[in-house]
Write a structure and sequence with these properties.
Elements (H helix, E strand, L loop, with lengths): L1 H9 L21 E5 L5 H13 L6 E3 L9 H14 L2 E5 L26 H17 L4 E4 L2 H12 L8 E4 L8 H9 L4 E2 L7 H10 L4 E4 L15 H8 L2 E4 L14 H21 L18
Parallel strand pairs: 1-2, 1-8, 2-3, 3-4, 4-5, 5-6, 7-8
Helix pairs in contact: 2-3, 2-9, 6-7, 7-8
Length: 300
Amino acid sequence: MNDTKDFLSSMGIGEVDSNYESDKTFAEGGQFRFEVPGIQSPKTMDGLLSEAENQDLVIHRVTQTKGIMLLTDDEISEMVGLAKDYGCELFLSVGPRATYDTSATVHTKEGSRIGYRLRGYDNLVYAVEDVKRAVELGVRGILLYDEGLLYVLNKMRNEEKLPKNLHFKMSAHTGHGNPASAKLLESIGLNSINPVRDLQIPMLASIRNAIDIPIDLHTENPKSTGGFIRHYEVPKFIKVAAPVYLKTGGSVAANHNWDTTQKEAILRVKQVKLVERMIKQYLPEAAMSPKNSSDLAIPE
């Protein structure tokens, strides 16, 4: 196996030992940020951010997962305004996906491996149009479910057909879980990666060792993806995988596209508070990014 390991090492994919710790950070020096996913509407987003302020908690990123095409222009503009006023990132997800089009295969047990990827030329065009609409309304963070779409959007960003400060993050639903996959995605323009949810700590360390972009990690999960809660592992997440976005509040939802209510948004804030307590008790030296620290600018 040594020849294989040597070759991987020459590609920047080295083996890590049990003592590995990341010395990488966000640009301002923070090791971790909080992300709350599954916030599907401005009403729920407002409730979430208001409760965070009441609890003196910082939420760095809010992510919508149902799709840009399911929001009106007014709703998108309102969410952009809420993010700007509060001082957090806003990520909206690409709407077109296999589960929304005419695919019968994706709804079968074997076909579910397709995930939310795009099928055919037309759906690729629809997905790009979805992103362009969000960008025109001020969105600067896009959640992706398809590697080919990332390839196209990065080309567009490089050629200034999309803003230079537009950020792309890849969903756990694409199924990536090893350092080679992470490195490939980074090389075609990804800004942060959400690996599969159940990776062990050494697996996360191997990914961090290979890439520089932030890693988005689920601290808990809805029932549809296992329902497991990893709060006690969060200090280890930060140690081996920084810079990380800690995706918190998922256990409140039943599934990825769950339409979170205002009451459930408050429960998600409670989950953030519980994770924050774990960090303060078991890794108090960890540096959290301050509010308004993201380089993901929202236009005036």
